[in-house]
């Protein structure tokens, strides 16, 4: 994330995250870089539907598409960006190697990533498959993909 943080500092742009299955891993990767306080405004780990909704995700979107959908990831990325007045918002939702008894709908081992560019009112979406039996390895892969996507967007 070092390149991402440095580039955002150069551009005087900010970022916020609303993470579910990554459990704050993206924010952690950002804050591991010196100077991150200049660009990271806020991060929320919204594991439950209740807190996704409290952070602005439409309950109608969750009901219609499921909490595990690109539509929900888009709601997460846009709402965290608007809530914090950040240039970029990152939303991540999905299932990694487990059945969610509270949300049985949605594909297993699929992760939905949305990066919202508030300045251009544009979403960048990526749907990926969990490929490892070890949860932490999948989270590392997801964070790496988000890092690469952010670099492509902000370069």
Commentary on this structure:
With 155 residues, this protein is of the alpha/beta class. The protein has one domain: CinA-like (Maf protein, Alpha-Beta Complex). It is built from 6 helices and 5 strands; from the N terminus they run αβαβαααβββα. The protein has helices at 2-11, 25-31, 49-54, 59-65, 70-84, 135-154; strands at 15-19, 40-45, 88-94, 110-117, 122-129. A 5-stranded mixed beta sheet has the order 2-1-3-4-5. 40% of the residues are buried. The mean pLDDT is 93.
Q: Key terms for this structure?
A:
155 residues; alpha/beta; five-stranded mixed β-sheet; globular
Structural topology:
Blueprint lengths: L1 H10 L3 E5 L5 H7 L8 E6 L3 H6 L4 H7 L4 H15 L3 E7 L15 E8 L4 E8 L5 H20 L1
Helix pairs in contact: 1-6
Q: Helix count, per DSSP?
A: 6
Helical content class: 40-55%
Multimeric organization? single chain
Mean pLDDT over the full residue set: 93
> Beta fraction of the residues?
15-25%
CATH class: Alpha Beta
What is the third-level CATH name, the topology? Maf protein
Trace the largest sheet across and list its strands: 2-1-3-4-5
CATH architecture: Alpha-Beta Complex
Shape: globular
N-C termini distance: 13 Å
CATH superfamily: CinA-like
Report the strand count.
5
């Amino acid at each position: 994330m070092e390149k991402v943080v440095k580039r955002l500092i150069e551009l005087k742009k900010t970022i916020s995250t609303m993470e579910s299955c990554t459990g704050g891993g993206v924010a952690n990767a950002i804050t591991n870089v010196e100077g991150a306080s200049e660009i990271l405004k806020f991060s929320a780990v919204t594991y439950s539907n209740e807190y996704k909704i409290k952070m602005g995700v439409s309950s109608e979107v969750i009901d219609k598409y499921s909490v595990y959908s690109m539509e929900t990831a888009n709601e997460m990325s846009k709402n965290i960006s608007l809530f914090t007045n950040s240039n970029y918002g990152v939303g991540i939702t999905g299932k990694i190697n487990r059945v969610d008894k509270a949300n049985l709908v949605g594909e297993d081992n699929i992760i939905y990533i949305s990066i919202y560019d508030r300045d251009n009112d544009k979403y960048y979406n990526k749907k990926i498959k969990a490929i490892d039996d070890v949860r932490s390895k999948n989270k590392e892969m997801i964070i790496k993909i988000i890092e690469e996507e952010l670099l492509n967007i902000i370069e």
